[in-house]
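Q: Convert this sequence to structure tokens.
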Amino acid sequence: MELIWDGEVDSGRRMAALVADLQAGKPPVGVSVSQSHAFVEIPTRSYWAIATWTVSAIMIWFGLSANNWMLLVLAPFMMAAAAMQSFGRVSILIRDGQVSVFEGVGGVGRRLRMPVLAIQRVEYVVKHGRGGSTSWIVLNGAKFGRHLNEDQKQFVIAFLLDAA
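A:
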């Protein structure tokens, strides 16, 4: 198992620290862990949802009033982001040698399933931009966790490392 943190292969020190924090038994705020420690669920609620819903409404209003079809085409994507920020969740279930990751709202979202033994590496990726940075988790090429805070992302990475 390999941990790649922001483009650099971990020498083992960060991985050991993350797993030690996990085994300490105090999950970050908002993280629900089942008694068996095989299921983790994290709501993706954010105060940014208010701004995202507002921008969605403005996009629709300007799109309709100014006959701007581009805004109308992009508005559903903004509304999906607002729904994720309001009602979304990330769930990770490890059972019978399988890991299942769900990210979405209700039953609508992305699912990733694979054998635990198929996990070759876990990556923490950061994209730096002019307006700040965005980070997420990559598991065998599949990205998830963009809506989690940093403590929650680190907990999820430790949970996956500990399972593998």
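The chain has four helices and ten strands.
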